[in-house]
Amino acid sequence: MLDMGWLSRLALRAAAGVHYGAVTVGVQVSGHRLAAVRLRALAPLPVVDAVRQYRIEPGKLGEAVRALAHGDFLAGARVAITLGAGKYETTTIPTAPAVPEDELRDALRWQLRGALAYPPEEANFDFVRLPQAGSAGPGGGGNSGANGAILIVSAQRREVALALAPFYAAGIEPDALDIPEMAQRNLLGAGAGMPNCRGFLSFDDTTSLLTVQLGDDLCFARRMQLPGAGAPAEDEPEHLADRIATNVQRSLEVFARQSSLPEVALVTVGTHAHASLIARAIREQAEVATALFDPAVVVANPQVLPADPGRADGQLSMELMLALGTALRSDGTRRAVAGAGLALPAWLQRRKETA
């Protein structure tokens, strides 16, 4: 039986203020690899202190986590762990319930009934108000009004417990749970003063994740099955890139129909074996500018981030890229430039109390 005491301790922690020199370790786990980035908040851009990556043998995640806990890599750092695809759900509600603010959480929990495969009472959940057209908010984006759309993030308590149990068993008490949508938001940087929306496209073994943000505010997120995932043989690269681009084009059209926010002016493509082909296909099909992810946009010393040894193009591994995005959640420089940004869900922003 799982010991749930540590989950209660996590839920009771108060958020601590971010300051220059603060250190955050972002951790990303996939089915076969664990990546962690130790990041120090400095001006004008944060600095990567160190990186660790481990190959996970089947059924041996605990060994990789214990290796991460060894030495002083985590010393003095807030630890943030990103939940993988399939461990959480996002639900968008076009219009917030017309209830007093102190009753909103209960109203949203009620709306989750029927949208989840498990009772809402068994969920850890919280919400983010999505920006609306209007004056720029503190994150440089739209105006997050009381009656606007809401993004609900929910995860079954058992899934959260299973994801965090290896870390607690190794003596690591995480300060935060995050999700890839927020990590991608961080990888684009604050974008303060930029009038248009920007997109970020990332990949795992079977899915892609497209996020759209205005300034520092997440506006839209959509996870899509990768064309040909699970097939015996991979599609020809050009064909695969075209099919991915078609999915992106359709998703951007959905965003444009559902939102009165400025159009997406740039889509950044994350790590993929055919990232350049995908970027070109998106540029041609969706008629939007594209770029490949460059860590120099968000950290001062990108050269210390090791390229994936299995790649010839010098790109970071997918896990390392998202671990970097997770570590950037507490970058004091970014917050100083962009303001408070999103009011992240409470259960995603727990941090250790300062001594």
Shape: globular
Class from secondary-structure proportions: alpha/beta
CA-to-CA gap between the ends?
33 Å
How big is the Rg? 19 Å
Query: Into which percent range does the helicity of residues fall?
Result: 25-40%
* Unreliable parts: 1-18, 135-139, 332-355
How many E strands?
Answer: 13
CATH class type of the largest domain: Alpha Beta
Describe the fold and architecture.
This protein is of the alpha/beta class. It has 2 domains: 273 residues, Nucleotidyltransferase, domain 5; 65 residues, 2-Layer Sandwich (Dna Ligase, domain 1). The protein is built from 9 helices and 13 strands. The strands form 3 sheets. Strands 3-2-1-4-8 form a 5-stranded mixed sheet. It has a 5-stranded mixed sheet with strand order 11-10-9-12-13, sandwiched between helices. A 3-stranded antiparallel sheet has the order 5-7-6. Strand 2 and strand 3 form a beta hairpin. Helix 5 packs across helix 8 and helix 6 crosses helix 7. The protein is globular, with a radius of gyration of 19 Å. The N terminus and C terminus are likely disordered.
Give descriptors for this structure.
single chain; 355 residues; alpha/beta; Nucleotidyltransferase, domain 5; Dna Ligase, domain 1; 2 domains; 5-stranded mixed sheet; 13 strands; 28% helix; 24% strand; disordered N terminus
Offer a quick outline of the entry:
The protein is an alpha/beta fold. The protein is built from nine helices and 13 strands.
Write the layout of secondary structure elements.
Layout: H1 5-12, E1 23-29, E2 33-40, E3 47-55, H2 61-69, E4 78-82, E5 89-93, H3 104-112, E6 123-129, E7 150-156, H4 157-169, E8 176-178, H5 180-187, E9 197-203, E10 207-214, E11 217-225, H6 237-258, E12 264-269, H7 275-286, E13 289-292, H8 318-327, H9 332-338
